[in-house]
TrEMBL record:
The organism's taxonomic lineage, starting at the top: Bacteria, Pseudomonadati, Pseudomonadota, Alphaproteobacteria, Rhodobacterales
Transmembrane segments: none
Keyword Isomerase: yes
Protein name (Swiss-Prot/TrEMBL): UDP-galactopyranose mutase
Highest taxon of the lineage: Bacteria
GO MF annotation: an example: UDP-galactopyranose mutase activity
């Protein structure tokens, strides 16, 4: 997991002068504005409020929770992951204890399936996938040796997504499960993407079909939004929804934590950082549409990447109806919701220039997925938020710039 040293901790000056003598604040209170009421803002804000700071969070949306937002479908009562599926998994005991302090987590094991070339297989690639794909009955050591024969062992230090795939699963499994899916997901060739994207997925030589390796996994009993609302439920915290940030607003606070898009803070003056956005084609049915929560589609000629059936994310609930999303990925225009930072060579160069601008900006800390332009899992976001809050409070207590 990434630590707080990877966040842009940019509180590097004395507090900004106070521009308002608003009677609602005590004179000795430190006033902090959070732009964005997602996970980062909620977790940092809560720690700062607990330390006695006056915390205000604004969000341009009509709900808290950012892209983790969940809500029940009015017709079916199914809990819907409005901005796409979120599954909580972590090895970080402190983060696990933290989230469990705000909601009850129910057991959830992510068992993803994929449809490819007219058949359904289990992901991540495991012994069942390999045996089914090749029509064999290999045991673990045999499968390992077999895949090693398929693999391109001349690739010693894989740099690209394609090299990583050819080295570890060979050309057949790569073509069936990864090439087409990745072209759809990222809108470019896997030869242009870093190996790190594929490294998120394990290859297993046993029948374990858990998508994640992590020790702690689960789903909040009533969805993510009540969990985040509970984090925000503190007398030192005010939340204002449907409120857009302006620099004038920021000037009324001692410090700003900004979890909106980094380039947006600077009015895109150096250009736009690239994102992929997602379109969800939502449909409802009765019964069970696909028998699992996530069905990927590896074939290039199927236009969507996957179908998610949301009631299977809450397997302890029973519903007659069902709500599904067909998920399409495309490049993000200024009017779209940004999801995945692209982080290819061009974007990295532009990012470096924005980071430089951010470093020069006093009194603002850029946090979270959009504020630091990184693809963050929820547990990493919380870990970084806890560390960022601790750093901020330590520096505030010492009266030194962070
Ligand atoms: N991927 C793929 N086929 C799949 C699932 C994933 O090619 O069936 C690739 C794809 O490029 C994706 C990456 O592996 O971006 C990482 O997968 P993960 O499930 O972590 O993606 P997420 O949707 O969580 O970003």
């Amino acid at each position: 997991a990434l630590g707080s040293t990877n966040t842009l901790l940019l509180w590097c000056g004395p507090p900004l002068p106070r521009h308002r003598s608003d009677a609602q604040f005590e004179d000795d209170e430190v006033r902090i504005l959070f732009v964005g009421a997602g996970l980062s803002g909620a977790v940092i804000g809560r720690r700062l409020a607990e330390a006695g700071h006056a915390v205000t969070l604004i969000d341009s949306r009509a709900h808290v929770g950012g892209n983790c937002h969940t809500e029940r479908d009015a017709q079916t009562d199914v809990m819907v992951h409005v901005y796409g599926p979120h599954i909580f998994h972590t090895d970080d005991r402190e983060v696990w204890d933290y989230v469990n302090g705000f909601t009850r987590f129910m057991p959830f094991k992510n068992q993803v399936k994929t449809t490819s070339q007219g058949a359904v297989y289990s992901l991540p690639v495991n012994l069942h996938t390999i045996n089914q794909f090749y029509g064999k009955t290999m045991r673990p050591a045999e499968a390992r040796a077999f895949l090693e024969e398929q693999a391109d062992t001349s690739i010693t230090d894989p740099q690209t997504f394609e090299e990583q795939a050819l080295r570890f699963v060979g050309p057949d499994l790569y073509a069936a499960f990864f090439k087409g899916y990745t072209e759809k997901q990222w809108g470019c060739s896997p030869t242009e993407l870093p190996a790190s994207i594929l490294k998120r997925l394990p290859v297993r030589f046993n029948y374990d079909d858990n998508y994640f390796f992590h020790r702690f996994q689960g789903m909040p009993e009533n969805g993510y939004t009540p969990m985040i609302a509970a984090i925000l439920d503190h007398p030192g915290m005010d939340v204002m929804l449907e409120t857009t940030f302006t620099p004038e607003m920021g000037a009324q606070f001692d410090h700003v934590f900004y979890s909106g898009p980094l380039d947006g803070y600077f009015d895109y003056r150096l250009g736009r950082l690239g994102y992929r956005t997602l379109d969800f084609e939502r449909f409802s049915e009765t019964g069970d549409y696909q028998g699992c929560a996530v069905m990927n589609y590896g074939d290039r000629d199927v236009p969507f990447t996957r179908i998610t059936e949301h009631k299977h994310f809450s397997p302890w609930e029973e519903h007659e109806g069902t709500v599904c999303y067909r998920e399409f990925s495309r490049s993000c225009t200024p009017d779209d919701i940004p999801y995945y930072p692209i982080r290819m060579v061009e974007e990295k160069a532009l990012l470096a220039r924005y980071v430089e601008l951010a470093r020069e900006t006093r009194g603002v800390t850029f946090v979270g997925r959009l504020g630091t332009y990184r693809y963050l899992d929820m547990d990493v976001t919380i870990r970084e938020a806890l560390d960022t809050a601790a750093d901020f409070l330590a520096h505030a207590a010492a009266g030194t710039p962070a």
